[in-house]
Amino acid sequence: MTTIGVDFGNANTDVFINCGNENGSLVFSPLKNDPCDDEKHLPSYVQYDLTGDVRAVGEVAKLTLSTNRSTTVFNVKRLLGRRIDDKQVQEFQAYLKKGDYYTLTSDENQQVQIQIGPKKLYPEEIAAEIITVALKDTLDKFETIKIDKIVVS
Predict the structure, then answer these.
(1) What is the pTM of this model?
(2) What does the alpha-carbon distance between residue 64 and residue 77 come to, in Å, rounded to a whole number?
(3) Mean pLDDT of the chain
(4) What secondary structure does DSSP assign to 104-134, as a single string?
């Protein structure tokens, strides 16, 4: 039985494969050659163009943050499932405004949305972009493995 685990974090996203057999399990990360190598994480950053379409996910998006502050989304995990009036969201929104980063807004139910150009995106949509890239990178390397389960945390 083969299970893929996705550790979706504020700063980075990692993917691990657990290949279980009757003698135990082998767990490894296809994104990392050395488990202590911090350079092999997928940064949890998404860069959009001014129309709100995805331009880059991961390292490229992170590297362009300084020149694309208002269109590069980061730390989206802290916004998942939250309302705009949540104290932590308000504190994070103040940080974003101070740094001239992306804009937080809300829908009619006060759920957090991220405004990129004319588009309003839910944090879950941005998280899906990051997780999709992480899984695609992994599955492209291991096309022959039959996946039984995927677990996201």
Answers:
(1) 0.85
(2) 20
(3) 87
(4) EEE-TT-BEEEEETTEEE-HHHHHHHHHHHH
